[in-house]
Amino acid sequence: xKFIPMRYFILIFGFxxxxxxxxxxxxxxxxxxxxxNIFESMLDDLDEDxxxxxxxxxxxxxxVVKLSPEQFRRFKQSPINPFDGLKxxxxxxxxxxxxxxxxxxxxxxxxxxxxxxxxSGLLASLRPAIKDAAxxxxxxxxxxxxxxxxxxxxxxxxxxxxxxxxxxTDTLRCKLFNSIExxxxxxxxxxxxxxxxxxxxxxxxxxxxxANRSASIGNFLLTPDPFGNVLALGTYSVATRxxxxxQQAFLGVQPETTSGGVRISEIQPGTASALAGLQNGDIITKxxxxxxxxxxxxxxxxxxxxxxxxIEIEYNRNxxxxxxxxxxxxxxxxxxxxxxxxxxxxxxxVPSQRYDNFPSVFQHDSPLFPEDCGGPIxxxxxEIVGVNIARLGRAASYAIxxxxxxxxxxxxxxxxxxxxxxxxxxx
Length: 427
Description:
The protein is an alpha+beta fold and 427 residues long. The chain has 4 domains: 97 residues, no CATH class; 99 residues, Thrombin, subunit H (Beta Barrel), CATH 2.40.10; 86 residues, Thrombin, subunit H, CATH 2.40.10.10; 79 residues, PDZ domain (Pdz3 Domain, Roll), CATH 2.30.42.10. The chain is built from 9 helices and 24 strands. Strands 5-6-7-10-9-8 form a 6-stranded antiparallel β-barrel. It has a 6-stranded antiparallel sheet with strand order 11-12-21-24-23-22. Strands 14, 15, 16, 17, 18 and 19 form a 6-stranded antiparallel sheet that branches. α1 runs antiparallel to α2. The longest helix is centred in the N-terminal third of the chain and has 12 residues. The N terminus and C terminus are likely disordered.
């Protein structure tokens, strides 16, 4: 077997890749769970033969992937390839195997500066706010490893958690605020929201007290653990919406920044802007009563909304102020655009196994890990405003609002409505 005569190391966007061009002494270097999640998230967007290779790496718990030169060429050109340096790699075509060893930096143990928002001192000062909510949270274990948080919603042991992180439902345990551990049984799975209902044998637990009000843009949010610690401090950043995969709210204008607002240089026929009566040359000054000063703020305001949302637009046409209402449509990403967007959004974070396609979530910027999801998230008054459901990317996490959670668990309000414990899945 002939190997390519080169060896070098590239570090790009927090991912590392080592080109191994000599014999590999240990081709089964153990893959971390975080890296395994990255591999699994890539599978749907890979060519069939590349998919099989990465599936074999996952099955064998290996961080080393062996490719032919032609497979390597396709991988480095793939939209889900996160290693920008691969685009400039010259590969000797006479080589027969290119072995890539993947690695991730230790994001979990990154030192936190005392002046950062996630500093231990600041988080400790916020502990009184989550004192009650912490008692309504649990740690969920599967195969003797912490995989998720949970939220108690009945005092007799019914717990809500994140379904896709439960590796082995026969080994589930929950650790309570008093450090007592209880075996847990799976009652039901709601695939649409990636939620699971667990039951432990316990009495006198502290069920979640759901907020009567929803959080607002800019509110600070706290994620507690069962022991009274604040895991993360974040900010409510995007209002509740659906996150259907591959869709983005779309107005249909080409914006240009002007001194008086944002000028429309082009209207795309049949889009929300055209149907609302906007024309080329109109200058948008406000969206939903908020001033629009430049093109980037207009784009962000539209992207922060969901398809189907209605927005009030104030604009200047030939010196006359007018207003209209537009219903935002959905713009479908192409397969390549969607794949690239997903990969870029994951850089610098450890994403959840399932991190998108939820019917109703709000977005915040708490830096969670996958095992931090499934538990409550509160405002600064300690009111539980939702349940964390996913870490999406570098600056984004999702939570299901408390109003949606209460609707989903309403059938558990009385004993007469409880499902049989052998119910496993509801689509």
